[in-house]
Write a structure and sequence with these properties.
This protein has 619 residues and is α+β, with helices and mostly antiparallel strands. Helices cover 33% and strands 15% of the residues. The structure holds glutamic acid.
């Protein structure tokens, strides 16, 4: 039975779809503003003002970041504080048991840098890691997820430490304070949190510390109740006191490894949580390298995102390069959407073939993001019909700049698309003009379902982002498991500069749909003339080199759909995975407006409404 809040949300989706047709999105979006679950801080998805801003999926977390900005902290300090709070209030999507990718624009140097906080494979991992030794066949995906095998070395705490050490102004112990307060005092459970717990109830009930924490009294915490996490408060306090070494070289790391090796199931579990192979020595070796972002020039704008092991930067970048060749504008919305989907289809064919951890195979990042290769691949697009997926991957090593459409190679294989749809994205900016765009995850909603006993956080299942078997028979797969290797990600935290100054920051969760969500928001904003809040609110479609294009229900109401179907598009509504509503992504973003204002934007409906705040609403 939908709750009244959920009913309102559905109405709002319909309003947005209708408004998209009439150009009155802003008015439609006003309806769910200041949405509030009883007892929770208000959820305001758009805020415009001065002095810095934060947007995340959760008002407690956004407030934690804003508090840091108000006390003189910078965007990096605020990002870590927001992330630490998300570890408490969004524990199924983030936390110190997981990893992520951090993008930072430094207002002093005008440089964009990134931190790769991706999880790594244990030393005992081999290419056949996810094959059943008894049969030689890949393990069923959910068996791999719900096991110690799926747990990689967590990178999130190292990401926070690295970011603060390099660019922050406050120590880690201060950045953790907001999260500690929320974990101690508790947060009001939203209807969505309760519903998502219920979706995971069966597997959560198998792991004693997970059941204890997230199924109090044997059931999901009801909406409106207050959930505390004193174990996580104590863990954060231990880290605040002893520093991150207590995790990477101390007792927390030892406990993480022991928990992955011996998942703490209840007596007589009905599910088989296979033991993992993670060692404390794997955790001790972990690094979160600072690395160069990907860069493409899209119609005079500089678009920066994450290089491999994420496929986010190369795939969004390649699709933008392909689109550079076309006049994608609101004048012909059928062709605009057609080109958006075809560019994404082609870029995914290349992503599936070429992108993995660049420390393990030569990933042609430069070629994939080159304008010349974009032109080569743009050759494939016909305004008269869709390509057939799987599209043969191209060869980015020697692009000819579209002077002759290169001959197609052998067809690829349709990727299964098994990445989780959890994860969370946050953006921050400060009064000095620094900007952070940060996506973090524990992979599936609820990760491996394994909570570290007495520590209050879930362990990731990021290792299931590896391909269990080669994707293209007979073709090397850059994303097979290996010791110390980082599985390919789709996370695409992005910062766009205009004339060398911040213009947009955006990102989203959603597994492989992250890439299409970020791309669609950029196209909506940069080409179709929508404001950033409208670009985020608009109904989503996700084409990932598959025979069908996933869409949200509201997308099917767009007037362009029959014409797109006539071109060969086959749309299917996504299955709900995070809560009861079929949704793609949960974006947050920032736009730096010409008058010196910053606009922070979160979802007006998806994920139970996000939260945007600015330091000063008026100057
Ligand atoms: N593990 C996924 C990735 O790295 C993210 C999962 C999600 O967004 O839910 O791309």
């Amino acid at each position: 039975m939908p709750t009244p809040a959920r009913r309102r949300s559905r109405t709002a989706v319909a309003l947005i779809a209708a408004a998209a047709l009439t150009g009155t999105l802003s008015a439609a979006r006003a309806a769910p503003d200041n949405h509030r679950h009883p007892g929770e801080p208000p959820r305001t998805p758009v805020a415009t003002g001065y002095g810095g801003a934060v947007a995340s999926v959760n008002p407690y977390a956004t407030q934690a970041g804003l508090d840091v900005l108000k006390h003189g902290g910078n965007a990096v300090d605020a990002a870590v504080a927001t992330a630490a709070a998300l570890g408490v209030v969004e524990p199924y999507s983030s936390g110190i048991g997981g990893g992520g990718f951090f993008v930072y624009y430094d207002a002093r140097t005008h440089k964009v840098s990134t931190i790769d906080g991706r999880e790594t494979g244990p030393a005992a991992m081999t290419g056949s890691f996810f094959l059943d030794p008894a049969t030689g066949q890949p393990l069923p995906f959910t068996d791999a997820v719900n096991s110690g095998l799926s747990v990689g070395v967590p990178g999130t705490l190292m990401t926070w430490t690295t970011a603060l050490d390099k660019w922050g102004t406050i120590p880690l112990r201060k950045a953790l304070q907001g999260g500690i307060g929320i974990a101690e005092n508790g947060f009001v459970v939203s209807p969505l949190f309760s519903a998502v717990t219920q979706q995971n109830q069966q597997r959560f009930s198998q792991i004693a510390p997970t059941a204890q924490l997230f199924l109090p009294n044997g059931a999901p915490p009801p909406a409106g109740s207050v959930l505390k996490n004193p174990d996580l408060a104590a863990t954060y306090k231990l880290i605040a006191k002893d520093g991150p070494g207590v995790f990477y070289h101390g007792v927390l790391g030892q406990e993480v490894a022991a928990t992955a090796q011996h998942p703490p199931t209840i007596a007589n579990p009905t599910m088989n949580f296979r033991p993992g192979v993670l060692q404390a020595s794997d955790i001790a070796k972990y690094t979160a390298p600072v690395q160069a972002p990907t860069h493409v020039d899209y119609k005079g704008l500089d678009v920066y995102s994450i290089a491999p092991p994420s496929s986010g930067g190369t795939t969004v970048g390649e699709a933008l390069n392909i689109l550079s060749d076309f006049d994608v504008s609101s004048a012909d919305q059928v062709q605009a959407l057609h080109h958006y989907e075809e560019a994404s289809r082609i870029a995914f064919a290349d992503r599936n073939r070429w992108v993995g951890d660049a420390a393990f195979s030569a990933v042609p990042t430069k070629g994939l993001t080159s304008a010349a290769y974009g032109k080569d691949r743009a050759c494939l697009i016909s305004p008269a019909g869709t390509l057939t997926s799987p599209v043969p991957p191209g060869d980015p090593s020697a692009p000819n700049g579209g002077t002759a459409c290169p001959a197609a190679g052998p067809a690829g294989t349709e990727a299964a698309g098994t990445e989780g749809v959890s994860t969370t994205h946050l953006v921050t900016a400060d009064k000095w003009g620094d900007v952070v765009s940060y996506t973090l995850t524990i992979e599936q909603t609820g990760g491996s379902a394994i909570t570290v006993p007495h520590r209050g956080f879930l362990l990731n299942n990021e290792m299931t982002d590896f391909d269990f078997t080669p994707l293209h028979p007979g073709v090397p797969d850059p994303n097979l498991p290996d010791a110390g290797k980082r599985p390919r990600s789709s996370m695409s935290p992005t910062i766009v500069l205009k004339d060398g100054r911040p213009y947009l920051a955006v990102g989203s969760p959603g597994g492989a749909t992250i890439i299409t969500t970020v791309l669609q928001i950029l196209v909506n904003r940069l080409d179709l003339g929508m404001s950033l809040p409208d670009a985020i609110a608009a109904p989503r479609a996700s084409q990932r080199d598959r025979s069908v294009t996933d869409v949200e229900p509201a997308f099917l109401s767009l007037p362009q759909v029959p014409a797109l179907e006539a071109l060969g598009e086959k749309f299917v509504t996504v299955t709900p995975t995070f809560g009861p509503t079929p949704e793609i992504g949960a974006a947050t973003g920032l736009e730096f407006l010409p008058n010196g204002q910053v606009q922070a934007a979160a979802e007006p409906v998806r994920r139970g409404v996000g939260s945007a705040m600015v330091v000063y609403p008026v100057r």
